[in-house]
Amino acid sequence: MNIYYMSISGNTRAFVTNLQKYAITQHEQNSLNPTITLHAIDDNTLPESITEPFFVFVPTYLEGGNGVDNGDQEILTEALREYIAYEDNAKNCLGIVGSGNKNFNRQYCLTAKQYAAQFDCPFLADYELRGTPKDIERIYQILLKA
C-alpha cells in the first residue's frame, strides 16, 4: 500500500508513520494485511510517474477567510498537488485522506476535498492534527476497503 503525503508541521508525518507501524503489526498478525510504503513529497521533490495504486494524505493550509466565500486558496502544499497532476498519476489515486484543525470550521480538510474534486477520486477520511490511535485503526480499515 503506497501513501504519498506532505507534512509541513510534522503532524501528517507523525500520523502516517504511526499508521505504517500499525500496518506492520496487522501484517504480522495476518499476513494478508498489507504493509505501507511512505513517499514524502516536499517543495524539492521532482515529479515522477506513479505506476501503482496509491493514497494521498494532505494537511490543510489556506489563506484566511472562511473556506467558502473566501479563504479557500491552498498554500504550502502545492508541490503534492503538482506531483499528483504530473502525467497520468491521478488515475492511480485510490483516495484522499485529509487532516486539519477543527477550529477552522468550514476550512477543516478543505484541501483534501479540493484534491478529491480535482483528481476525481474519493475523499476517504479525515483526522484532526496528529490523530488518535482510534483514527489510525479507523483509517487503516478504510484504506483496506478502498
From TrEMBL:
One GO molecular-function entry: FMN binding
InterPro entries in alphabetical order: Flavoprotein-like_sf (IPR029039), RNR_NrdI (IPR004465)
Domain of life: Bacteria
Alphabetized Pfam families for the sequence: Flavodoxin_NdrI
Listed PANTHER family: PROTEIN NRDI
Protein name (database record): NrdI protein
Organism: Enterococcus dispar ATCC 51266
Biological classification of the source: Bacteria, Bacillati, Bacillota, Bacilli, Lactobacillales
